[in-house]
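Readers of this paper often ask what the protein records in our data store actually look like. The remainder of this section carries one protein's record, kept here as part of the documentation.

:::
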Amino acid sequence: AGVKEDSFNVLDLAEYTKNRPWWRKVFAPSSGSSAEKYNVATQLVIGGVTGWCTGFIFQKVGKLAATAVGGGFFLLQIANHTGYIKVDWKLVERDVNKAKQQLKFHSSGNKMSPEVKTRVDEVIIFLKKNVILTGAFAGGFLLGMAS
């Protein structure tokens, strides 16, 4: 009774990517090196701009954090001096000493978990393969911190 059959076109992505080099560049598994994708000038621009933006943001956030911590400490000192709050300095000293002991204990082992070691190795490999991009990022970061 009038059943209409829809015909669907099947897109074979493997065949499609063979005929489209731009598709391979965008979606192919990357070797982790941007040197193969971009020329030196592009890498310098990308690294420099992203580094500058990151440095600028770090500078602003750093100033805000320093102001908040310093202002909070200043207000606590005023409140302690005027008698609004009472600080148990013996308890503070005991907690600080406990934290020091834990830091000494953890740093004496000096062993990284396998997951962290794998991530660190991946970062090191990426940095080695993208020396130009990394250098430009570092320079831009320092410029961003200075401005």
Remarks:
- The chain has a mean pLDDT of 77.
- The first helix runs from residue 13 to 19.
- The chain has one domain: 3-27+37-146.
- Residues 47 and 136 are 5 Å apart (CA to CA).
